[in-house]
Design a protein that fits this description.
Layout (H helix, E strand, L loop, with lengths): L2 H8 L15 E9 L2 E10 L5 E5 L6 H8 L7 E5 L12 E4 L13 H6 L14 H13 L15 H13 L5 E5 L7 H16 L3 E5 L6 H4 L2 E6 L1 E7 H4 L2 H8 L4 H15 L1
Parallel strand pairs: 3-7, 3-8, 5-6, 6-7
Antiparallel strand pairs: 1-2, 1-4, 8-9
Length: about 270
């Protein structure tokens, strides 16, 4: 019996809502489990285009896993993900990804310009070196994040905030329509944080859509148009002014949902059999 089968036996099934096929990202009944332990269950939502969307929840709520599952970086036990109405593998060039800075090997021997140029690989011919226009696009992206003067510096010699700016530049150079960002504000100074939010709003004015894992609750109303409150399941999703309420935050941060605790226990028993 699979993890998804156990979850379906223990947890009630909800009717799947209709999603607009034009949505930049729609997630349908998605379940993710690691070694018989549920990480996400029955996640279902769709985002509106041209919005800054925060993904908020406690540690271990599955926020990073949600982004990775949308990008096929971790397997889904069930459910589907659509990017503008199609599977991610068919829309890969439309999506930019900024992972957590801590997940990157910053000692890898390469410089800033090379890292940013990697964002152009989807537009480059197979096995050919970067073209002049690819390098120029990478330099322009570095200018946008205030890092042009560091183009030839080794990435290991950058501060945390500078490294985060480099990753944003790599995403920018993709010229994506949808950006998924995993805690881009984590560990940066106030100046870098303001530079990042200014850049995100500039992208929004160009019609881009951004989903951003975020941990600072105080800045959520200021930064995001919409918010997804997540604790293994979607607790609430929609406009920040309607969703970001004390009642919903209590539901999100008040502890694991009882049904999911039951599911975890059932899956652990199944794994021991």
């Amino acid at each position: 019996m699979t993890a998804a089968d156990v979850l379906k036996q223990v947890l009630p099934k909800h009717a799947e809502p209709e999603h607009d096929p034009a949505s930049p990202l729609s997630v349908h009944d998605m379940t993710v489990a690691y070694q018989h332990k549920p990480v996400l269950w029955d996640v279902d939502f769709a985002v509106r285009p041209g919005r800054l969307i925060g993904i908020v929840g406690p540690n271990g709520a599955g926020k990073s896993t949600l982004l990775k599952a949308c990008l096929d970086l971790v397997p889904r036990a069930s459910g589907s993900v659509c990017i503008y109405g199609k599977a991610y593998r068919k829309q890969r060039r439309l999506v930019g990804y900024v992972p957590q800075r801590e997940s990157v090997d910053w000692d890898f021997p390469t410089n800033v310009l090379d890292v940013v140029t990697m964002g152009r690989y989807g537009r480059m011919a197979w096995c050919l070196p970067p073209r002049r226009r690819d390098r120029e696009a990478a330099l322009h992206a570095l200018e946008q994040v205030g890092m042009a003067d560091y183009a030839h510096r080794q990435i290991s010699r950058l501060s945390g905030g500078q490294q985060q700016r480099v990753f944003l530049a790599r995403a920018l150079v993709q010229d994506a329509q949808l950006y998924l960002m995993d805690e881009p504000f984590a560990g940066v100074d106030a100046a870098t944080e303001q530079a990042i939010i200014t850049l995100l709003r500039a992208l929004q004015q160009r019609g881009r859509t951004m989903l951003i894992v975020h941990h600072d609750l105080q800045s959520v109303p200021e930064y995001f148009d919409d918010v997804i409150l997540l604790n293994m399941r979607v607790v609430a999703c929609g406009p920040t002014r309607d969703i970001f309420t004390p009642e919903n935050l209590q539901k999100t941060y008040g502890g694991r949902l009882t049904l999911l605790d039951q599911a975890a226990e059932a899956m652990a028993r199944q794994g021991r059999q």
